[in-house]
């Protein structure tokens, strides 16, 4: 029997009548992968100690407001994904959800897609464990996803019209072949727990390459085994910024998966998987990206992904799996408008936007935009500030000298350091309170790295 991997918290009426949640025809108690709770106290008592449930969906409960329950469950276990479901959106509720650290704010469409995805995964696990034919989970997954499709169609009919998603539906978690893998392993569900952070923006020029490079260096310096992936599949230049001359490229890893075993950090330098060398390889990389990411997430603590300016299917693949997505806006009004367009696209495609962490780049005195300006434009969303690092950023990264930049006490690096300490799980505890010491002390990066499963190294301070 497939072990439960998702907990659903809802009041008794919702559990007895799944159609109220959009799950018409579903027999929830019969889903072996789904554990049900109507009592907030029972849910908290069980989930505080359980290690099998890796994701929680909070719809409602008999005795506690759902947002309070979701926040409590997240506080009890920060490593577990907790999603808040709200079928009637409101700006105030979104703000409360964002402030509590809950991972995702799901609309009805996003919830249906997530349910179908997890049901498909459970079917794939069962078939992989029993050695049955691969076609089985595909049929079960299609049947599961038909729930989301039917509900979406009904909602569209009620609204008289529905926008067309620019991405192919990734909620169905399509299975693709991964070179060198067996058919059974191709549908196996990942068991890794890496913290995946894509760095995205609505338009080009926001600073994604620089931010993702420095973020990966900071993560590695804090003792996390870190991988930096350049998912700007056409014009990625992260190896140049890091000063790495002959990196392992994504297409090479796909052609020879055994080479992934040699992909590991070295001292303060994170592991690097570079973008394809040839532009025409980008499409093939996107097709194999889900399996590649699932494999890599078993091998590292933190994965930082640089992305391209043009939104495409690879963005959906990354956002589906992300723990946090760093959404950059720069000082141009056009960058803010592009951010809003990208968020609209996510809503139309059922991509939860609550995991997004918005950051205003190149902040400085007398800059055109402030974090308050951007927050107001984004209907009250929290917006972090990343300081303007000046010419040193372009010159030192352009010369492939990232450690010189880190050691220069650059404003960009110190502000991004604070942001990473807030984002990465348990990073503040690892670094210690003195990490926020006097500005003159500069960055405090670890010279070593922590092995998986071992103790984290102590800070250099």
Automatic annotation (TrEMBL):
A Gene Ontology term for the protein's cellular component: cytosol
Lineage: Bacteria, Bacillati, Actinomycetota, Coriobacteriia, Eggerthellales
Keyword ATP-binding among UniProt keywords: yes
GO BP terms: negative regulation of cell division
Name listed for the protein in its UniProt record: Chromosome partitioning protein ParA
Domain of life: Bacteria
Listed PANTHER family: SEPTUM SITE-DETERMINING PROTEIN MIND HOMOLOG, CHLOROPLASTIC, SEPTUM SITE-DETERMINING PROTEIN MIND HOMOLOG, CHLOROPLASTIC-RELATED
GO molecular function: ATP binding; ATP hydrolysis activity
Keyword set, alphabetical order: ATP-binding, Nucleotide-binding
